[in-house]
Design goal:
By secondary structure, the chain is mainly beta. Helices cover 4% and strands 24% of the residues. It has one domain (3-200): OB fold (Dihydrolipoamide Acetyltransferase, E2P), CATH 2.40.50. It has helices spanning 11-15, 207-212, and strands at 3-5, 17-19, 34-36, 61-63, 75-81, 90-95, 100-104, 114-115, 128-130, 139-141, 143-144, 151-153, 161-167, 170-174, 180-184, 188-191, 269-271. A seven-stranded antiparallel sheet has the order 9-16-10-13-14-15-17, with no helix packed on it. Strands 7-6-5-8 form a four-stranded antiparallel sheet, with no helix packed on it. A two-stranded antiparallel sheet has the order 1-2. It starts with a strand and ends in a 5-residue tail after the last strand.
Length: 276
Amino acid sequence: MPTKKFKPTTPSRRQMTVPTFDELTKFEPEKSLVVIKKKHAGRNSYGRITVRHKGGGNKVKYRIIDFKRANTAPATVVGVEYDPNRSAYIALLQNEAGDKSYIIAPVGLKDGDVVYTGADADIKPGNTLPIENIPVGTFIHNIELYPGKGAQLVRSAGVAAQLISKENGIAQVRLPSGEVRIIRLDCKATIGQVGNIEHDTVKLGKAGKTRHLGIRPTVRGSVMNPCDHPHGGGEGKSPIGRPSPVTPWGKPALGYKTRNKKARTNKFIVKRRNDK
């Protein structure tokens, strides 16, 4: 997916790039697979902000994605669409019975392609198999952590994991972050790399685009009052007054590991992403 640049008619246009959307072949969502998505602006059921910097944004509807791939009937790709809820594009499938569903669109999937699900499916982009039936070294995405729960790992634009080894009922998978994780062989995964590879090269160019995404402004702690942030207060442009930066709630902000050392899933991680 190449990106489109603009003539520098304004300061924001000078930096702005947008996708060309060449991969898209369908521009209206399937009504039967769309549901209303309510906005909460980062607030919980008490009305208190629990996630900062959220609010506003364009009105969007949620597309129901089939992450479980429970229907094993062959399905034909009807179109590739944009999804405002994720960085990846989505593909609309329709089987011989007329049932329609959305999946994450991998690289190379196009209209008219037939997608298969099951242990005997070919090793082709878009096909979903149990990891037990996928050759070692294959690039995969949409990986299940628990059999039948649906894909949870490797779903964003341009990413892919690699199957490293299989033995004793488990597989080792190298995730896009570099982490190596143990996954059961009866979990499903989809062949190929997620599409929209150049998503991370797009430059928004102006503040208004982040507001369209529902992201509100972020204010530095050092310009706040002491009651609002540990970095706040002081005369003029003051240093933070601490050995290292902290969050608004006093936790170390740089390099501080927040994962629970007693987490139940620690035993499934073979290699951390930052290990040498």
